[in-house]
Amino acid sequence: MKIQALLDMIKTQIHILQTRIKPIADQKFSHSRFDMQLFRHKSTHLSNCQKELQNLYNQLRHSVLLNHIEQVNFLTEKISYQIQALSRELSTQSLRNKESAFLEKKEDGDLYKRLALCQNYERRLLNMFNEKELYINTLTNHKKRYQCKKDLVTLAGRLYRCRQSLIRIEKLIEYQHNQLLE
Q1: Mean pLDDT computed over every residue of the chain
Q2: Side-chain half-sphere of 68: how many Cα atoms within 13 Å?
Q3: What is the pLDDT of residue 104?
Q4: I need a labelling partner for 148 at 20 to 30 A (CA). Which of 45, 59, 117, 136 fits?
């Protein structure tokens, strides 16, 4: 394939992506959608990813003019991966919107219920952890002691995740209260 034809094809694909991204370009996502190897910065906006893609395309054109074959190959591959990733992300937008709407609706009604369940779970995990700790001190068999220590580590992990969930739920409740006061 001739270089100019390749550049034109890439430019067309970038233009198509820009058109598709435009309606949601400045919509903020809760977290970066792409790997740091794919896009240099962790952006929560597709417009920033689109700008990076355009910058890479400009670098590619410059490398073609300078006849830097290795750079052209590298940039072409990276641009191709970025175009594919952005296209996949755009294809999932309708699903993401439905999921977000469902989660928001679900979270509004049952935050206090989730908080109570999580607090109950934390209490039960803490009891199990304390009982296991007491039990481990009575064991003399090394295999049983080792297994009990593994169980303790597992319980500690569950307790940690439970407490992280409690913190998130409490922050959501606080956020909702602040929204009502405004």
Answers
A1: 84
A2: 11
A3: 58
A4: 117
